[in-house]
Amino acid sequence: MDNKEFGNQLEKRTKLFALSIIKLSVSLPNTPESRVIKNQVTKSGTSIGANYREANRSRSKADFKNKIKISESEASETVYWLELIEDMNWVAHDKLKTILIEANEILAIFTSISNKLKS
After folding, report:
1. What is the number of domains present in the chain?
2. Residue 74: which domain range?
3. What sections of the protein cross the membrane (predicted)?
């Protein structure tokens, strides 16, 4: 698989992930505490793909690196919020497990890309 094909697949994957985050967000309880977490996880979970898409259309190598680092950071933040949701038992474990696995895989991908850009 070449870089362009990989990029297209990762754009699709992060978009599907964003959709799953939005669906999860809708299912969270409507309490003051959960609304805070709902807002945060929705922002960070949808930002991953948006920043990656911008990275793929960047004007310079430095801009590309910056957007990749933002995607990595947003993925890490999303894992954090998902872990809080899990610890609060706001969503059935089996429903959250799949999203959490995907979040960790996406984080690993962006961490790997970011590490390769350092060398």
Report:
1. 1
2. 3-118
3. none
